[in-house]
Task: inverse folding
């Protein structure tokens, strides 16, 4: 058994007792109310979920297990996954054990590559990734153990197994999707001795003479790892997982949500917008040109990608971390320079539109320009990178939910007719 398994085995029984105790003693206390606006408005702000891996206070941004993101930007993604699952950072031995375990599970079964080869050549990379994960459901330890019969208290163990296998294979899979979809040549095998994100960088096959692309991948994987429980991908994964669908089903479902332009796909849209600006103005625009271009985007009925957030009300600390990386490695890159200029102008334009609650940049506003700087110009792939990282958040949330025995999710819906009657009598 791995050290992560043993650590969780020790943590889970008291955690389960604590949650049961809270429900028993305080189960009838009211945490939140729901207005008609919220019921029609994507349940924004309704407190109806519990997520222990991370939280996103609107005025702080991502906090993982009590630690603000800005204190975690120099960590490895493997350390973050351990933190998400257990609430502690791994020590040296635990990290080494975890990395060895991941490395031993990395091989992607051959039938998965065949499924991908059978898809249309110009399929969206997200459709390829999600299909591959679903095809790999064949490997699910959870489903096999469930079919044989197991106690509810054991559910977390095969969930951990499936999660570890998925996490170990996802980088290989995603790198394979990149090379296959964009004719980059044969797949590159993982290299022993590299950490998870550096291996992903290695398997993508982009030139990296300075090692900074591997550093970017480490940072990228840390920054996108989790964002509490209510965003579309986390919530979808959680909801599907609550039916005891195994992690392959649940994570694939979550990632299908991440593929939407208002969620993870915004990073591809965002870089396209920045490049459009640079092309139109033959280089980095003046502030006035940028102001006008932003207004034109809004007037044409489009959103300014990379700006705004359903929860945050400040500049996303993930944007800050990416911007700092860009300023360190390539301050003169024209795309990185335009992103910095956009940050100066766009919030000021968006602030004038009353309905927009958050005029500040989110994570997607800066990530694409860094990838572009390192030679990854295939925008449609960017959400795949986000997905590889987000598997950590989704899988850790599933492990925790299965650990304390969370029941199937089933909120109540009403018809508009019911709402009309309710309004009359309320
Ligand atoms: N540009 C133009 N209009 C915007 C806007 C932006 N960047 N951000 C919000 N608005 C508009 C909304 O479209 C909405 O308009 P309608 O009422 O006419 O529909 C109004 O302002 C109120 O929206 P809100 O309450 O401030 O924000 P929401 O919680 O409804 O939406 C979004 C949050 C992130 C979806 C939104 O800000 C947006 O579309 N941003 C651009 C796309 C983007 O960057 N998405 C990535 C978000 C981060 C993420 O999840 N990454 O995975």
Result:
């Amino acid at each position: 058994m791995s050290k992560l398994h043993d650590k969780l085995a020790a943590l889970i029984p008291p955690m389960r007792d604590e949650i049961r105790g809270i429900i028993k003693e305080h189960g009838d206390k009211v945490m939140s109310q729901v207005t008609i606006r919220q019921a029609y408005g994507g349940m924004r702000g309704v407190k109806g979920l519990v997520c222990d891996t991370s939280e996103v206070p609107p005025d702080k941004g991502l906090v993982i297990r009590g630690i603000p993101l800005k204190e975690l930007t120099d960590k490895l993604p493997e350390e973050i996954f351990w933190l998400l699952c257990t609430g502690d950072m791994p020590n040296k031995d635990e990290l080494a054990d975890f990395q060895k375990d991941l490395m031993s599970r990395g091989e992607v079964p051959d039938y998965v590559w065949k499924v991908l080869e059978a898809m249309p050549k110009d399929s969206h990379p997200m459709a390829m990734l999600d299909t591959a994960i679903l095809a790999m459901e064949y490997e699910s330890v959870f489903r096999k153990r469930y079919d044989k019969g197991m106690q509810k208290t054991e559910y977390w163990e095969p969930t951990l197994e499936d999660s570890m296998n998925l996490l170990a294979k996802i980088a290989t899979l995603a790198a394979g999707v990149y090379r296959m979809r964009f004719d980059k040549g044969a797949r590159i095998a993982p290299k022993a001795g590299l950490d998870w994100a550096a291996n992903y960088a290695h398997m993508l096959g982009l030139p990296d003479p300075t090692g900074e692309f591997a550093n970017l991948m480490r940072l990228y994987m840390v920054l996108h790892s989790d964002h509490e429980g209510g965003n579309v991908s986390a919530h979808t994964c959680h909801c599907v997982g609550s039916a005891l669908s195994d992690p392959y089903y649940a994570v694939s479902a979550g990632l299908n949500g991440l593929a939407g332009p208002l969620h993870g796909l915004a990073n591809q849209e965002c870089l396209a917008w920045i490049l459009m600006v640079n092309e139109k103005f033959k280089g980095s625009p003046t502030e006035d040109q940028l102001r006008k271009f932003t207004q034109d985007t809004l007037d044409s009925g489009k959103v300014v990608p990379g700006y705004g957030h359903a929860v945050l009300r400040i500049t996303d600390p993930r944007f800050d971390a990416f911007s700092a990386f860009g300023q360190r490695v390539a301050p003169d890159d024209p795309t990185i320079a335009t992103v910095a200029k956009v940050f100066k102008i766009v919030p000021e334009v968006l602030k004038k539109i009353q309905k927009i609650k958050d005029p500040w940049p989110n994570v997607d506003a800066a990530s694409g320009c860094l990838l572009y700087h390192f030679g990854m110009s295939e925008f449609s792939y960017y959400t795949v990178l986000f997905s590889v990282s987000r598997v950590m958040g989704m899988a850790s949330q599933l492990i925790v939910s299965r650990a304390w025995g969370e029941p199937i999710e089933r909120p109540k819906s009403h018809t508009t007719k019911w709402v009309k009657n309710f309004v009359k009598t309320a």
